[in-house]
Amino acid sequence: MMGNNLPPATEVIALYKQHNIKRMRLYDPNQAALNALRDSGIEVMLGVPNSDLQRLSNPSDANSWVKNNVLNFWPSVKFRYIAVGNEISPVNGGTSWMAPFVLPALVNVFNAVRAAGLQDQIKVSIAVDMTLIGTSYPPSAGAFRGDVISYLAPIVGHLSYAKTPLFANIYTYFSYSGNPRDISLPYSLFTSPSVLVWDSGRGYQNLFDAMLDSLYSALERLGGGNTLDVVVSESGWPSAGGFGTTSDNAGTYLSNLIRHVKGGTPKRPGKAIETYIFAMFDENQKQPELEKHFGAFSPNKQPKYNLNFGGHRNWDISTEQNVTVSLKSDM
Asked: Is the pTM above the cut of 0.85?
């Protein structure tokens, strides 16, 4: 929602429906957006902003937050998930001070949802980025950084107990643009004609699968085993503003992503990957320049690419209005 030229919430909902987008990620409980979502049928991943984490480590504040932003809209708004914080890392200087509040806030929001009897309908988790991974290659060797394990282990334990997926923001773009010498563009865009990485008998033809499977391997090493699923809570490719950013690359990535996530990864084959596209709109108030160009749509509501969200498959989109689009076919 970080733009001064974006359509009002009611028009955004109409645009979702027009394009058969069935799920939305909101990064904070924007009241106009939540009111517009009433009776829309769109399923919502609702974010607890990072700035609220410390407050929600108090159980009564978490109860109030859930009451005001979830229960007051349920069931006319179809909440699917609550994401307690986004990309908090104990070793990232910008967010490290919030890390001690993530687990208490997560547990408190979970308990508030459970107290309302909704723990089976609304799953409560956190969204991480891939900087928490220390070893990603080959995917079977995936492991978290040693200095984040004490942060993540109890969170993974809680998610396993609550039978809730972990949310992960996965961008092949940043891996490619950061290391184009070793990571090819076709491998990053799902356009490689053949397997490029063999790992323990599994063949990897694209970087997205390799990144996701390295995360699964890391979770297994933390005791998440095969019980913990991952929902890809953001993925996308910018169309301008940086290395490798073209409209062609972005459109290729998104259309291939939509097609690909129906099928699972080499480590978890045959199981569709619930995936949210970042983002619904270009956002002209973001920095750096690259961050302004992740939209699947322009602010005038025109599609930037020829993407098929619909038909008999239920695809979803996200708008960092703070919103993200979901790409997964029915689980």
From this structure: yes
